[in-house]
């Protein structure tokens, strides 16, 4: 009996090992080679698959080589935004792919393909996170019903009447930073050089801490410092991040990441305990949303501000126009939420800065099933790198002056055909707040109707898709048909 049980147990272990070995061989070699053959048969090109690591070794080398190098304003930005992907496209053409470990990633910069990918979240999903969730979480990695639930809870924080209440706190944070600069200038008697970047980083953290969480400046700054350390450590283990569960290996970098993550969670838990506890989410979910809010909100804001200052110092004619507009709208009064809506020139400048220096130059999606994308048939498991940075500098879309700072591109807003991902992501918000609806419908100059797609354009047209002067002219001609005396005749 003992011999029989021992034999059965041994057989189970052998079968389990064989099954695990088959799965490992399939993941490391058979599946990648099958996907590579499928892509190459459709005219897609890239480096040959290298077992397990793919192109990760080259990618890490490119990151280490480019990070220490300084950049000049006159430099071409496209190669610097997504350096390795840019080199891949330059070498293999637009229809190319890179290997992120054993998974091929297509380089996507065609605006129509990007629109299709981002408009079908059920087919093109965010890749399963591993390393990324240590630094950020929340909506960035959620899908389906949980994404919809969190989005519904978080969205009211960005309703217009709530954002108006943050203007005072933001103004105080900005004033505090400017007072520090004035003190530095006064102490030197003459003009002096100020490194504004650390101050702008502190400013974005201070604004988020006060407006979103009503927490202290010190708590916010500490969270940002910890997240920066996480990013540096993450780059060290990026080469192996595609291996499932790699972050649980007891390496020095992983232990440091875990310790920092615990400290961030502790700080955010303390902040959350002082806030509203009836939010419809667990404490862990709230902490994940806070991590995303701090990381995404601080880095993007400070980057936008510093590049805006750099470009305005170069293009002083736009600096003068922006200053004149601010004085025209506010005079000597303090800025208000209502007045900010009238800063058209400032808005154009910020949009052009976001185009030239996108805060996140790419995003990744994965096919959940075999799908037809233009003339390509992509099997499940193929990933796509949506190259936002390359798209924003494409001369075929923006013209030969695509690398130049020209805010007048956005004179008519972002409702035209320009491929500006940050303001045209093919996503729609469901607006039910009465005050927000009134704000949107009473400002047709700011909130314009979307450009009709070919199908809707052939079914209906006229006033439904008209804007500005053409809408006014058509409405003036048509309205008399609905005057009361004519309606009476009809009845």
Automatic annotation (TrEMBL):
Gene Ontology molecular-function annotations: metal ion binding; monooxygenase activity
Any one of the GO CC terms: membrane
Gene3D superfamilies from the UniProt entry: Cytochrome P450
Coiled coil: none
Keyword terms of this UniProt record: Heme, Iron, Membrane, Metal-binding, Monooxygenase, Oxidoreductase, Transmembrane, Transmembrane helix
Keyword hit for Nucleus: no
Family: Belongs to the cytochrome P450 family.
Protein name, per record: Cytochrome
Organism: Abeliophyllum distichum
Lineage: Eukaryota, Viridiplantae, Streptophyta, Embryophyta, Tracheophyta
